[in-house]
Inverse folding.
């Protein structure tokens, strides 16, 4: 099926076309095993290997293909993943995981403790911005037998047990990746994991087709025969596909926020914002601190005053979220509310710009900034337009620049940008999801979702380092509170929103949102009931 045929099929809103991939439910209602789940992926991911790329579309699909040792409930407590049980030594340094028996990769080869160790200590420390900071703490990794993994840390690290979701620590086959260039390995196109679904076909610009992994180790799973992710760039067409039942599930920004109130009233659909607890998505305006005038904190503070966060929340995101006050989300651990805040005030913004010598010239213009618009949907374009208009009121000309998902990731990770927007996850603990964006040690050119802004403050580095290894929650709170107060003074980025996202799904679907990682889950238990 080529792109033109696919477009015709979509416009028919559910009428079958010239393809062997079914649209809609293929089994009778009430049958719990079998069926095709049609859903959406937007934008199309650059790759499906979650160890190589951690952008949201990759993680959504990759979660069905790749697994890790653990999963995490709505309450963020660990649950069995590839590991059926685990223990932690009294000194907090040794973690022992027992794998389920008979786990196989999609190529039929067994998955053992050696694959887990190789993935965590070799691949992820090189390719994964967040995992690197965690797994570099491992002093020794051992496999006393094929189903036992033992990690010994250099020193206690309380969040370690929260580091094994499928988006953070996916297990790759050692026999495929050992002694290769991980990012250029030809097997990346095959996406070989252990998950309940494996890649059958990827037609660029059309669809990604996953089918049942018959050798899956969990008895009775997966329930579905296949999942088809449709690439539907047009926002209106995505909403129509959901309304007509052409797709039975949408997630993240598949549905634009302005369509949420209308779609929420449809009798055949359920809508929930659950399933993002582990991620606690944090939206901010990212500024390259290396580039003038962003290298002056007074400029960054002026931007914070010039952006009306309440208006952004209400007009662009239709109330789905809470105004952010700093780098740590109030939805996660160790949030500090007593920090410096920036009320919406154009006068304060202008005074700060005047103080730094950035005077208004002809026509009131003080500076010109390029804003790289994230290619994730219309809401991001609207946010870019909002920033352009808001900063224009204080004499900052903003030029919007577009691109595709791969190009955006490349430019931002290589520091070839001035300003952009970003949405990063918190992962239940600042040591996992917050430190990576501000620690000097995590300034890594070419690696996405590291400290891309280039912010560096030795005092913050020290506080983050100490908080990560502190053995009591009270001490960790004290240290993280100090770090948040400094960061809110320095404003390396402008935090906008603790964002909520709508998941829409057909009421016939069961077990869609079962854990704190929601639609990134394996979907092994999802069925048509």
């Amino acid at each position: 099926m080529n792109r033109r045929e696919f477009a015709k099929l979509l416009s028919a809103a559910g009428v079958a076309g010239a393809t062997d991939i079914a649209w809609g439910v293929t089994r009778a209602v009430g049958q719990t095993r079998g069926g095709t789940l049609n859903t959406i992926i937007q934008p199309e991911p650059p790759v499906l290997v979650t160890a190589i790329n951690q952008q949201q579309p990759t993680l959504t699909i990759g979660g069905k293909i790749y697994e890790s040792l653990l999963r995490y409930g709505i309450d963020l407590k660990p649950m069995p993943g590839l590991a059926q049980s685990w223990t932690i030594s009294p000194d907090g340094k040794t973690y022992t995981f027992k794998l389920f028996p008979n786990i196989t990769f999609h190529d039929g080869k067994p998955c053992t403790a050696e694959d887990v160790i190789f993935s965590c200590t070799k691949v992820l420390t090189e390719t994964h911005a967040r995992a690197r900071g965690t797994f570099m703490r491992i002093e020794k990794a051992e496999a006393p037998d094929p189903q036992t993994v033992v990690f010994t840390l250099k020193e206690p690290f309380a969040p370690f047990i929260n580091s094994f979701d499928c988006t953070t620590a996916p297990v790759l086959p050692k026999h495929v990746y050992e002694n290769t260039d991980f990012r250029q390995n030809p097997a990346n196109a095959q996406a070989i994991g252990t998950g309940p679904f494996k890649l059958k076909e990827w037609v660029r610009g059309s669809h990604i087709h996953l089918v049942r992994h018959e050798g899956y180790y969990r008895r009775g799973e997966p329930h579905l025969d296949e999942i088809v992710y449709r690439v539907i760039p047009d926002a209106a067409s995505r909403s129509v596909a959901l309304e007509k039942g052409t797709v039975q599930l949408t997630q993240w920004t598949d549905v634009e926020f302005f369509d949420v109130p209308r779609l929420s009233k449809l009798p055949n659909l359920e809508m929930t914002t659950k399933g993002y607890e582990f991620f606690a998505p944090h939206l901010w305006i990212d500024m390259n601190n290396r580039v003038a005038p962003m290298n002056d904190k007074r400029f960054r503070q002026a931007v914070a005053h010039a952006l009306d966060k309440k208006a952004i929340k209400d007009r662009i995101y239709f109330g789905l979220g809470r105004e952010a006050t700093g780098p740590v989300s109030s939805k996660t651990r160790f949030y500090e509310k007593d920090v410096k805040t920036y009320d919406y005030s154009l006068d304060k913004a202008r005074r700060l710009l005047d103080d730094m010598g950035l005077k208004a010239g002809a026509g009131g213009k003080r500076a010109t900034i390029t804003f790289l618009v994230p290619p994730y949907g219309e809401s991001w374009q609207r946010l870019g337009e909002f920033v352009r208009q808001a900063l224009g009121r204080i004499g900052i000309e903003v030029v919007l620049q577009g691109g595709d998902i791969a190009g955006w990731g490349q430019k931002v990770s290589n520091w070839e940008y001035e300003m952009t927007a970003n949405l990063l996850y918190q992962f239940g603990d600042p040591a996992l999801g917050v430190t990576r964006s501000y620690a000097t040690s995590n300034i890594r050119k070419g690696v996405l979702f590291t400290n891309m802004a280039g912010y560096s403050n030795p005092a913050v580095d020290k506080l983050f380092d100490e908080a990560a290894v502190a053995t009591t929650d009270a001490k960790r709170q004290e240290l993280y509170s100090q770090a948040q107060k400094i960061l809110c003074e320095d404003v390396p980025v402008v935090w906008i929103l603790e964002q909520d996202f709508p998941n829409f799904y057909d009421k016939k679907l069961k077990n869609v949102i079962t854990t704190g990682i929601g639609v990134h889950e394996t979907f092994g238990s999802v069925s048509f009931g």
Notes: The longest helix spans residues 473-490. DSSP finds 15 helices and 21 strands in the chain. Confidence is low (pLDDT under 50) at residues 1-31.
